[in-house]
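Weekly structure sync - notes
Attendees: PM, LS, DV (DV joined late)
Agenda: review two folding runs queued last week.

Item 1: First target. Sequence and structure tokens pasted below for the record.
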Amino acid sequence: MELRTLRYFVAVAEELHFGRAAVRLHMSQPPLSRAIKRLETEAGAALFDRSPTGVTLTAVGAVLLDEARTLLDQADRLRVRVAAAAGVATITLGILGDSADPGATRLADAYRRRHPQVEVRVRETDLTDPTCGLHAGLVDVALTRGPFDGTGLTVHELRADPMGALLRADDPLARRDKLKLADLADRRWFVFPEGTDPLWQSYWNGGEPREGPVVRAVAECRQAVLWNGTVGMTLLDHEPGDGLAVVPLTDMPPSRVVAAWNEGDTNPLIRSFVRIAIAAYRG
């Protein structure tokens, strides 16, 4: 059994859907399906029960998933140890500023346990660069949020978070149980500086052109609302702070936590980082 085929199998087993697994692997679905069929032939048993809505693991598939994860982890550790012996065990991670995500904390703990010999250099960026330096060649991998221009990048979604409107606590709309974007149409919003990624800017402005104070950091977003009575977006489960309130937005797409890296980069430190990130954010 080739490691590549086992990676394909793990992707299908974790997504429980061939289409989603193909997207995750950045390949079309037919060759993925053929690879899994060949693996089932090698195993001498079906690995998945297939249905129109997706797939489920068979008992044999569950055993193989456990063993495949162990084998792939060992392969990643081998590559990392070789990199360490060669004196190249350093990875530069880009993150968005003011991030207190428990998933990121679990990831840091798990990566440190798995690769204690790897030096992780962290580059924190403000809200004007959602790729955290990837497009500029300043980092190896980014732990960030979408959407943004993914040209030349591989992007893997780790989690989707519901969104809310950030308002002053004494704003009449703050007394509502929920809001729609149309309820905020006539309000001033905080906006990012000119030149910010258009996809990123549009998302945080609810898909419409907005006017309001220019901000670069999360703290500035909160202060813009507090001092000016503007509105903006925030994660629904974030503590807004004194004088502020968050109201659920029912028609706002979720904010997606992603890992991103340069397309075609085969650095084993990045591959291991992404595998550990997927597990950490599932937890």
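Item 2: Second target, run right after the first with the same settings.
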Amino acid sequence: MFTLAQLLLVVPGTGLGWDETVYTSQVSENAPAAFFSAPRARGISYLVAPVAALTSSTVVLRIYLALLSGAGLFAALWVWRRLLPVRVLATAGALFGSLWITLYYAPQVMPNLWSAYGTLLAVGCFLRAARDRTDHRALAGIAVGVAVVALMRPPDALWLALPLAAALLLVRRWRRAALLVWLAGGLALGAAEWVIEAYVRYGGLAARLHRASEIQGGMGWHWAVDDQMRSLDGYALCRPCAVPWRSPVTALWWFALPLLALGGTLAAARARRSATAVLPILTAAAMAVPYLFLIDYAAPRFLLPSYALLAIPVADCFWRGVADPLRRLRQGNALLVILALTGHLVVQYTVLTDKTAKTRALSQEFSEVATRLNQLGVRAPCIVSGDYAVQIAFSSGCSSRQTAGPDASITQAGVAAAARREPVAVIVLPGERPPGYARAWRSAPLPESTRFRGHRAYLSSTVPAP
């Protein structure tokens, strides 16, 4: 059902976003690789490489990821079968999979959902290995889960490992050297590529971490809780997040989440398996810390690992309400649960359809701009710089080179020099002047779409006249 919902609601007509373009271009034959900034990790690029290297079709890539994400959700929950009733796990998967954030990002070339799957796998295997010393597969599962998270989002892996390591120290019966070894091994294995690349391309680990912090706006104390709430209204990225909170109803489930998780803890305690609720809740809280308190902007996808973990005690809470031993209240409880879930699904569906409609419209605009540039003579090998250069360049078969911002990879002098060798197009915002090196270049208007109305493309002399 999760995969089918993606194929019906999200996949048709949605093109690659900015981050997706960067990740896909690293392994695609369609265009040169975009600049890869310090905070990024290559795990998601490796995941899509088998398809991206063979075809430039976004639809094929989306279908591949939709199928793979369905299998991933199944596998991540499967490891919990020795710990929880199947009905709880199925409900947890349905709750997590029905969030608009999950459905929207599942078929996208983005790392956050895969970080969530790795987190679910690692915590479930940790609980299994802590309970049963003969469960050697669970030990390996810890390493695999943490390694997946580290490959996708190295900081997430650190925040995942911290509460698990603390649990080893604080719970006497869990103190096993093997657990710590597999936990540390998975972290080291998954983060190795990112650390090695830090020394090869960024001047060392400290330099990469420093640059990553700069791009994130400076890691430090920032209250971003309200930003995350507003971002649930359909924002992919809320930066800066000084936007009105148009639909508070989209965050009702967010406010209910702590209470439902607490109810799940009580349900787990009655079933004498408190750890299956307490550890996921504590780990979810730890993994949410950097995105709620250490950066000054919000993106709802950042919290997917936390939502995946919290879905388990929430599902336990729902089943506790339906299976209330007081028969005279059972029907009423079930009706309340059904009404709450129905309302939740309506809100998620509304936000999702609105978000995907905007994405489809934007994808069409990028396609029109790329076609226009090709008609003007901008064809590979070529360079595109300026506003939305990453997506436009990828669609045009060009390299994207920016002189400022988080993707800065060339100086203005470098662009001017490149323009003497190959076609260069600089996209300029309405009312703004082109860079000094491009003021004598001929210009052409871009298609009069919503996003690009008034934009102009300044073309180097190496671009043949149409």
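Discussion on item 2: The CA atoms of residues 52 and 233 lie 31 Å apart.
Action: LS to circulate a short write-up before next sync.
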